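seq as requested:
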Amino acid sequence: MAKSKQAKKKRRQRRQPQFFEVMPTMAMPTLPTLPSISSPHLEEQLVAGAQEAWRYGRVGAQEAWLYGRAVADDAGTLARNLGRSLWSRRARAIYISLFAIGILASISVVSTMAISTYKLYASDISSPSALLSKKKTGVTILDRNGQVLYQGYGAQNAAAVPLAVLPKSLKDATLAAEDPSFYSHPGFSWRSTFRAAWVDLTHRGKVEGGSTLTQQLVKNAILTSNKTFERKFQEIVLSTELEQRYSKDQILEMYLNEVYYGEGSNGVEAASEAYFHKSAKDLTLSESALLAGLPLGPSRLDPNVDPQAATDRRNYVLDRMAIAGSITPAAATAAQAEPIHAFSRTATINAPHFVFFVLDQLRTQYGADAVENGGITVRTSLDLTKQNAAQQIVASQISRLTSHNVSNGALVSLDPATGDIIAMVGSADYYAPGWGAFNVIAQGQRQPGSSFKPFAYVTAFEKGWNGASTVVD
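struct tokens:
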């Protein structure tokens, strides 16, 4: 093999280029006849100069050709030597070492990020109540029996219910719509994650989430909604940790009690009350499918905003349930034929004079930030049932005294033993323009009237006056 290579090299060195084998046989081109010139030697000089230029050009071309061949041979030799050097045994060992170092460095970075994420959110996932209260904002004011008087500054209606009391149709519809493999994955799906990453890359943007139900719970309850790879990494880490801490049923229960369904409703119980005016345990198959489809786009799929979009989404969820085998095709068809009857949530404030009296106290004692962003719930002394009775009393008394030009009234009921405010009606109509919001009794700076007379009489008696004394006013 070595002799053959040396022989080829010698033949290549002896061989002359085809170009220069032809060149010596080329005849000198015939020059055109020049016009007669006065100098007899000028024509000979021109011919001689042209021949000399031809010889120099030929020699220069030959040298350039040989030099180019030499450079090409040297470049080829250099490339072959470089290739052998770059793939030598030593080079391969270096490559393997660098690759291993890169893998170890990547593992170290990922592990550090995972530990940092866990430490940062450890307290937030320590219990279901901590997880579900992480993003609570605003303020909720309750009466003494737990009835809601007011929710504001982002506070949302939420009521937790055990998974055991919820209908099977709701659980099956939620899994069919959001995560069919919920009970088999470890908290995240590699297939969905890679599919989402591929879609994101091919569309030059982040257009698909690929999140499991556990990941959605983590994102909604703890993390932000920013579509970043850092947030996605944190989501996977925390989802895996949640799967280690809690059972699948516990995670599903937390999800159903936390996810936002629109109409100001967090959690399925609040959503059922808002849309259907019933408890979640009484939902029908059609209603369960409708609610299960809403988290994809609570505003866009709201049946009060776009009934057709809500219907299409409900029917899609029912089809998915039939494919999964949780209902029969006949049951899906029957539920799809049912018309949607949904109510629109109406925001009301019970005992408004009292509510804003309490809000003023909260701002004074804890500051405006605690009221607006603290996620606080305040249980008050007011009894909503007695408050409603007080409002009826005020309205009735005003009606009886209309002939005496009475148009407004107020009532404050206190517990004399504790000083608790049981009812507070600041005016006949809080929403009356101009004067309705004015709290006549509790906060109005008014003349004391006849309530001051006993003090005046006692002072007069102490001075020796009596019932017969005359006072000119």
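The CA atoms of residues 8 and 14 lie 10 Å apart.
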